Amino acid sequence: MQINNKSWFLIIMLGIVWGSSFYFVEVLLKFLNPFMIVFLRVSIASIALIGFCIAKKIRFRLNRQTILLIFVMGFINNVIPFSLITYGQQSTTGGLAAILNSTTAFFGIMLTPLFYREEKITWNRLLGVMIGFMGVAIIIGIENLRQFDTEGAGKYLIIGASVSYAFASMLGKRLTQTMPPIMSATAMLTASSLILLCYIVATGQTQFSLITPYILAYAVAFALICSVLAYLIYFETLRHTGASNLTLCTIILPASAILLDAAFLGQFITRLEFYGMLVIMAGLITLDGRIFKLRY
Fold this sequence. Notes:
By secondary structure, the chain is mainly α. 78% of the residues lie in helices and 0% in strands.
């Protein structure tokens, strides 16, 4: 599907919005534990989206199989990756977390043929994945690949989030076939809220007493911008550009996170991390394949 000016605007906006999530996590980690941050994000977002769906009078049907799929999707598309990224950012900058999280596309390419036989790994996709993982190795450091100290573990947690996102993208297609896309997002976030609420209560990690108006304002902004607005832009982008063009926002996402961290938190990625990011971006561009189509 050809990309027009409106589509480019949506892709860039989606990259900026998703990139800002790493900044919000950096700020909230100064006050709350990771699970509480994730719970606030998904619960506030689910309430807002439920109101949106009611206002739009969106209709849907539920059965046992759909409810099970909703909870599985909520777990692997929200609870696991959001938590891993938030924990990972305790020892990494938001910019580096965003760079590592952009590897989701590489894991998706490798996993898709296992779920959908019609999806084939083409030469440009295979080459893109190889280049992308070279970038990850540069960021972590060849000599540090086997080290799992505090800083190294944070990087691997974020990569783990990318794997979880990739699995979720496989199941996500089934969910959007059973109910409207925006309702799928609402249902996932609601299921995630219930899962996390049970967990933080059972483990005693609730920190409601620590929430000040300042923290609540950041949490609300985090949820509305990075989940509600992101999902609305996501589905609008999907409608105008198609799924294949959505990968372009993963190139913009790290730049957004890096600039926000530098401007508001004074955090900068290292030179080696910058070089690794360039290699990962090269892998994403190769993966996309459109440059090769233009050339040949």
